[in-house]
Amino acid sequence: MQSLIDHLNEILKHEWTGVAQYSQAGFMVEGIWREVFADKFLDDAKESFGHAKLVGNKIVALGGVPVTMRNEVKQSRDLREVLEFSLAFEAKAVEMYGKAIDMAEETGDRALIIFLEDILKDEQEGVDEYTKLLRDTPAQAIQTTSAKRVGG
User: Who is most buried in 47, 74, 86, 102, counting CB within 10 A?
Assistant: First the structure.
């Protein structure tokens, strides 16, 4: 069980990093896209904080002590780079929660597995969203066809 608690603490460090990194991105985004992305990044910071609360409480429930440290915060004034940092952050979270689920399966604790799967779903949605934001798909021309009148 201690190895699972240790891994959950690594996840908690990652979530604390998300709180800081997404908040910083929300503060720093400038220009024409500020209106769109500032709130998105701050909402993602809130989501990371929500995950941190859940994971921290679970660590205590399992008999551990939650960490208070975080990892390095990546920041940039370049929006595309911030979006790339965000995609990498979410992908790392998916990987970490996936490993935690594998570890929880060894304990046979079904409730813990479901708890982790619920958070994993949020993280995968983050990967999907940042993937779409970074995709450079050219706008498709809307084709309209005029209806032909038949008969008279």
Answer: 86
CB 74 within 8 A of CB 85: yes
Q: Report the share of the chain in percent with pLDDT over 90.
A: 88
* b/e per residue 97-133 (b: at least 16 CB within 10 A): beebbebbeeeeeeebbebbeebbebbbebbebbeeb
Q: State the virtual CA torsion across 48, 52, 55, 59 in degrees, nearest 10.
A: 160
As for how many domains the chain has, the answer is 1
Angle at 37 between CA 33 and CA 42, to 5 degrees: 150
CATH number at residue 126: 1.20.1260.10
